[in-house]
């Protein structure tokens, strides 16, 4: 059985394309094109289910048409409409020091600050503003937004699913003060 901590979300199947079972796929991470892994994982009724990739072709920087094994008609493809697509963490390791993770890789990881200790779980990546933010839940029962900055990261433990950061002094205090003013 595949566990949530073993995968991270990379996109969503939108709708069928054509009559032969192709799916329109919007992605935030093209890791499936960069590493040797021949399957996606989809979330159906709370269960992570692997599906082997027959083929894919890019339509833009963030979309592709995907053909899954065994999905050979528009009717079968409709079952995948608006289904979240995940990728195995074990295959997402960078091949070298120069290759980077996308911010979505960190969703589901625990965030620990060198000065404040455990902050909580990264539950989302907010890209609605000019600055990408990591949404961290469970810090003193609240949700906090942490700027997604490579310079803040001290260590990444993919095995333990923990990212250690060194946040600027006052960042968490400012975040809490804003919540109290609301």
Overall pLDDT confidence: 84
Secondary structure tally, helices: 3
Q: What is the total tally of β strands? A: 12
What are the secondary-structure elements, in order, as H or E? EEHEEEHEEEEEEEH
Per CATH, the architecture of the largest domain is Beta Barrel
Named CATH topology of the largest domain: Elongation Factor Tu (Ef-tu), domain 3
What Rg do the Cα atoms give? 18 Å
Largest sheet: 6 strands, antiparallel, barrel
Query: What percentage of residues falls in helices of 4 or more residues?
Result: 10-25%
Q: So what's the CATH class of the largest domain?
A: Mainly Beta
CATH superfamily of the largest domain: RimM
Counting structural domains, the number is 2
Low-confidence stretches: 95-99, 177-182
Shape: elongated
What kind of oligomer do you see?
A: single chain
Side by side, the strands of the main sheet go 1-2-5-4-3-6
Specify the structural class. mainly beta
**What percent strand?**
over 45%
Cα end-to-end separation: 43 Å
